[in-house]
Write a structure and sequence with these properties.
By secondary structure, the chain is mainly α. It is built from two helices and no strands. The protein is elongated and about 45 Å long. The two termini are about 25 Å apart.
Length: about 60
């Protein structure tokens, strides 16, 4: 397991970059004809969405 410590500003920038990439990824998934490649992209999307959710949860927990 990798443990990464980010300052709040760094975490927010990372979240924004991931959200932007996820938006692009949605378009790529929609435009992909290969079912195998589409499934790989959907897997990547799920992993990245999970990371974004963990960043949001960590920042919410830090604000308490």
């Amino acid at each position: 397991m990798v443990h990464l410590v980010l300052e709040p500003t760094e975490a927010e920038v990372l979240r924004m970059v991931l959200e932007s990439y996820l938006s692009d990824l949605r378009m790529e998934i929609a435009d992909t004809d290969s079912m195998d490649y589409r499934e790989k992209l959907k897997g990547r999307k799920a992993v990245l969405r999970g990371i974004v959710n963990r960043i949001v949860e960590a920042r919410a927990g830090a604000g308490r």
